[in-house]
Amino acid sequence: MKNFRTCSLIMGLFLLASKGLAQPSANEILDRVDRNTYSETSILESSMTINGRRGSRTMTVRTYSVGDTQSFSEYLSPPRDAGTKMLKLEDQLWIYSPATDRIIQISGHMLRQSVMGSDLSYEDLMEDRKLTDVYEAEFLGEETMDGRPAYVLHLKARVPDLAYDSRKIWIDAERFVPLREDLFAKSGQLLKKTIFSDVKQIDGRWYPTTMVFKDMLKQGDGTEFKVLTIRFNEDIPEHIFSKASLRR
Amino acid sequence: MIKFLIKGLIRDKSRSRLPIIVVTIGVFLTVWLHAYIKGFMGETIELNARFTHGHVKVMTRAYAEEMNQLPNDLALLDVSSLMEDLSQQFPDMEWAERIQFGGLLDVPDEQGETRAQGPAAGMGLDLLSKDSREAERLGLERVLVRGSLPEQPGEALISEVFSKKMDIQPGDEITLIASSMNGSMVMYNFKVSGTLSFGVEMLDRGTILADIEDIRMALDMQDAAGEIIGFLGGGYYEDKLAKETAGAFNAQYEEDPDEFAPVMKTLGQQGSMDTYIQMAGVWSYYISLVFIFAMGLVLWNAGLLGGLRRYGEVGVRLAMGEEKGHIYRTMIYESVIIGLVGSVIGTSLGLLLAWYMETHGINIEGMMDGASMMMPNTIRCRITPPDFYLGFIPGVLSTVIGTALSGIGIYKRQTAKLFKELEA
Q1: Which of B30, B180, B328, B419 is the most exposed place for a label (fewest CB within 10 A)?
Q2: For residue B27, which of B393, B422, B332 has the smallest C-alpha distance?
Q3: What does the alpha-carbon distance between residue B188 and residue A101 come to, in Å, rounded to a whole number?
């Protein structure tokens, strides 16, 4: 009897230990996600298809980013939007419109406006910080999402200036990329929903190349964001991240 | 007998002149005041109609559901053809395309970077077409403080308060930042041609007005408009007529399931205007009722006094053997004639003044300086069907009732006593 109790205790401890080894903590999961999605620099060409109530339209954008502080985007098509440029430096955002030859700083409530009529706001574009830097993660459980095992985490803001106070995020348990994300306001209202798919291995990291953003307060079928090409950790000339380059 | 009575009234001026003058004045005031109340109440409704609601407004069904948010992504398309259809179907009405929008006005510094920025509520309306009545409709000349109205594309008017706050002068360039019809953020440069002061905080806070073609260019709304507003031929809002017009228009699209099919809403069906129109109607009714009642009392009193004044005459007639009932009836007939004559003259004079004030109005612009609310600068009357018969209620009824009451005394007098009275 004594031996049986000892064996049970050892087996229980073993099971606990093995479980602890197999399943990383919530913050570790988040850190693995950051390592996949965050890079020192990136050059991204993407298409954004906005599915509105009156039809769809697609635009293409080239974006240069350095960490979470500098980003420069140029709209390549359609012709009406081509030449529009956006520059983000730290927490400031400027937009250049070739039609008016004006550089306008976007601030205050304008940051909550939709980008080009999409389901994304300028605030969403501004938010490039690592999730681990701004959210406290709590493990909620495991689920299967589109046939993939996924960890479900609840993220609660730990800095005051975030667009979304909390998030519920489904993370691929093997590739550590987000599969779905629900974004909530402080009141608990669901504001946006994002579905990530077409996960590909690029430069040794898993990266979702299709994202569908849905602003829950807006009608329409959401905005589909497709990564056409992406290069990580490439050298980007410093002059790109200057206001002078907006007019070039 | 009527002829005899009329002759009597004409020959004995003391029996007719003063009573007719009193009735005429009373009826004149009743008719004119009713038309004035209708006109004043209506003018406030008309101001709202001219600025935002129209007498009727055509939008897409989807736009109509969210019209408070000015959802230009749900705007009407192919507007020129719709305008033609409306003009053909309702030839007596005036139609105007409008685009209302919200956005930011950005003022550049010498380097072309943001110097000042503020929220703006704007409207695109036809300011440059030769036959457009939009500038006149909004009284833009009157509220212009500095500069001039737009004379060419690319010019805009902004509120005086906003121009001072942002330190903008006529001739300066500003940039409008707004959402295009498909939701993109758009920028468009305007040259400020002039500044406006409506005297209403809501409008003076940050208004920008520009020609609709410029706004179409700015918001990527080619041949589109958020709204087409219509004005009834009479120039005044008639709820019943507006409903009939809207009903006739909407019947054409009843079978169309498209959420972007046009729908016509009357002024009373937009926002809180329904309550206001009903309130204005009730107010107008009660004010008129109180005045008619007051005038009724005055005229009744006049009739009463007129009857009592003829105490001696009645005594003589009774002494001469005239029947009490006959005297009473002739006095009633006389009061009917006096009431009718006074009412006809009073109604005619009241309608004449009301017509003059409806056509020309009385300009009180000088009294409106510094006014803090949107009020009409011209007082106008409005003649409605009740004005043609309303004055007869106090004019005839009160005079007759007054005479009838005073005449009751006839039956209390005894012939035997009359001779003593006459001797005395």
Answers
A1: B419
A2: B393
A3: 10
Q: How many CB atoms lie within 10 A of CB B191?
A: 15
For A233, the token pair is 């950790």
Strands of B138-286, DSSP E: 144-147, 155-159, 173-179, 185-196, 207-211, 227-231, 262-266
Residue A197 per-residue DSSP state: E
Q: Do A104 and B189 touch (CB under 8 A)?
A: no
Interface-testing mutation among A80, A94, A100, with chain B (most B C-beta atoms within 10 A): A100
Q: State yes or no: pLDDT of B183 exceeds 70.
A: yes
Task: Verify whether the Cβ–Cβ distance A52 to B182 is below 8 Å.
Answer: yes
Model confidence at B412, pLDDT cuts 50, 70, 90, reads: confident
Tokens for B162, please give them.
């906003």
Cβ-proximal residues to B395 (8 Å cutoff; 6+ apart), any chain: B23, B26, B27, B30, B299, B339, B340, B342, B343, B346, B347
Residue B42 confidence (pLDDT)? 76
**A220-234 pLDDT, tens digit each:** 889 999 999 999 999
How many CB atoms neighbour CB B295 within 10 A? 24
Stretch (H or E) spanning B10: helix B2-11
Length of chain B: 424
CA pair distance B36, A129, nearest whole angstrom = 67
Identity of the residue in A105, A116, A118 whose CB atom sits nearest the CB atom of B114: A105
pLDDT digits (tens, 9 = 90+) for B327-358: 888 888 888 888 899 899 999 999 999 999 88
Model confidence pLDDT, tens digit, residues B227-284: 999 999 877 788 889 999 999 999 999 999 999 999 999 998 887 677 777 777 787 7
ipTM of the complex in this document: 0.71
DSSP reduced 3-state for B390: coil
Write out chain A residues lying below 8 Å of B217, CB-based: none
User: Nearest 5 degrees, angle CA A115-CA A121-CA A127?
Assistant: 120
Closest CA in chain B for residue A51: B182
Number of C-beta neighbours around residue B4 at 10 A: 10
Burial annotation B199-210 (CB, 10 A radius, 16+ → b, else e): bbeebbebbbbb
Please report the beta strands in A110-173, taking only residues with DSSP state E, as ranges in sequence order: 135-145, 148-157, 166-172
Which chain B residue's Cα is nearest to A111?
B185
Measured at the CA of A154, the angle between CA A223 and CA A206, to 5 degrees, comes to: 55
Identify the burial level of A233 via C-beta atoms within 10 angstroms of its C-beta, where 0-12 means exposed, 13-18 middle and 19 or more buried.
Answer: exposed
Q: Could you give the CA distance from residue A123 to residue A101 in angstroms, rounded to a whole number?
A: 24
Tell me the three state secondary structure of residue B208: strand
Q: What are phi and psi of B363, to 5 degrees?
A: -75, 120
Burial degree of A147 (CB within 10 A; 0-12, 13-18, 19+)? exposed
Measured distance CA(B375)–CA(B44) in Å, rounded? 7
Q: Is the dihedral angle over the CA atoms B209, B211, B212, B216 positive or is it negative? A: negative
- Region B31-56: what's the mean pLDDT? 84
